[in-house]
């Protein structure tokens, strides 16, 4: 009797053509491996930024500007809104980025590194120092003159780039140091969000706030009646987005708000999943034995699918679903649309331009590491916090330099701060220059100050904190032995 392959164990669907399947695997397998590299999102950001710079300074520079100013209307009939492509990327697509940030903040406040005040004291202090000192340096450079509104630009840290730098350093970076950077970056994001909401919003329109509040109430009502978070929550998100935009508050904050109300505790949990799945599998087997057709098998299959979905929290599912789109789509697109500074068109003779560039560059390169180290030293000396096992002051300096990589959020705030196109170009150039220097400096100092290898695990570091270290990077392998 001829041995035929078990269709259950087959690596290809029955209708697939083996040569085509093999060719497709040969093409996509290297891409899949790249996307699972921790630094992949940072590398894509770097490529997108370099491409934008090259494009904006090439003979096709005019096409770069025309592309992002292409009018695009979104809506149905009278309920439509026309803006250019640049607006929709910065104001709408980046809402998904802020939703991911909101989900991470909520998770860490409930289960992670920010759930305990003593363990959170060091990254909180480091983040506050890393925001206050750069802003102070910028103020010292510009005073209250032209360009003074850009003080929020050097406060920001780009978590994807910063984590990418530490990843390139490999085993030199102690796991506790990496977790510290991630906790610091999350708190830094909270600070940036507050700065955007409070200081970079126009006059508040009450009717817009009422619409946004209606969107939030709708989301809470949906949760209250048992609607599980998913694509259906796009409706309250869009209502909040429209309300905040009408109110004069940056609409991307809607993503943070929805992220903060998303549940971070699972419905079924692990044990509940096992119980529901076993019952559904028993039902599935009984239906097969009774000779029922495939349509009758859909019910137990649906129960297994629902059990699998609710085995983890809605917040964790949201992070997993959003991460590849944000890290490998939205953020590189944002970089491509915003990093294209025409160097020939940058005019340092413009009033305030030299101080804007210097304030941003020095705020990031000097203010960030100085603020991180000074604030951390103060809370450690005051015994309000301790350096985790394996974290040294040399490592803290590397974290401080890596934190000077502002890129995504810094450029985002630049777009809000500078209405003058000339100052905006100078501000972006300051961010790009500081990012390049900080990235190279962190790599160099990491090789000089950090030991060649670190132990794989850290005593006293919780599993939830270790899991935090893989969220933004896209790493899928486990962080502990099974």
Describe this structure as you would to a colleague.
This protein is mainly alpha-helical. Helices cover 67% and strands 2% of the residues. Among the domains are: 82-200 and 351-468, Na+/H+ antiporter like fold, CATH 1.20.1530.10; 201-249; 270-306. The chain has a two-stranded antiparallel sheet with strand order 1-2. A hairpin with a 2-residue loop joins strand 1 (71-76) and strand 2. The longest helix is centred in the last third of the chain and has 29 residues, at 353-381.
> CATH class of the domain at 82-200 and 351-468, anyone?
Mainly Alpha
Please identify the structural class as seen in this structure: mainly alpha
Largest sheet properties: 2 strands, antiparallel
Fraction of helical residues = 55-70%
CATH superfamily of the domain at 82-200 and 351-468: Na+/H+ antiporter like domain
Output the strand order for the largest sheet.
1-2
Name of the CATH architecture of the domain at 82-200 and 351-468: Up-down Bundle
What is the 3D form?
globular
Mean pLDDT: 84
What percentage of amino acids are in beta strands?
under 5%
Helix count equals 18
H/E element string?
HHHEEHHHHHHHHHHHHHHH
The value of Rg in angstroms is 25 Å
In CATH terms, what is the fold-level topology of the domain at 82-200 and 351-468? Na+/H+ antiporter like fold
Question: What distinguishing features does this structure have?
Answer:
482 residues; mainly alpha; Na+/H+ antiporter like fold; globular; disordered C terminus
